[in-house]
Amino acid sequence: MIVTVAAADVPAGKPLAVQVSEELTLAVVRLDGSYYAFDGKCPHRGGQLAEGTLAGELLVCPLHHFKFSLKTGRCVMPKHLRLRSFPVRQEGELLQIELQVEEHAPRPV
Ligand code: FES
Predict the structure, then answer these.
(1) Which pTM value belongs to this model?
(2) How many domains does the chain have?
């Protein structure tokens, strides 16, 4: 499944919330002309990362202020936490975010 977002809608310096379904809201972030998309639910206790803040290359969860690298998705501390990230491709003014099919989901024939 591909989710399309206008690049201009992603503000500088803060995440954009993109609701895909009841279960999934993305946090889409721009940094130095590159775009990143993550599952907006923090892997710690489910904080809403789209309501978080940016500190350089780090996305800071609003709930307990854990910091995650935009480039790797890894938490600075504790290191075992990692954001679920999705590939973003820019086509002109649009961003195409590819949501992978879950491994347990049936594959299309
Ligand atoms: S819920 Fe995100 S740091 Fe705790």
Answers:
(1) 0.90
(2) 1
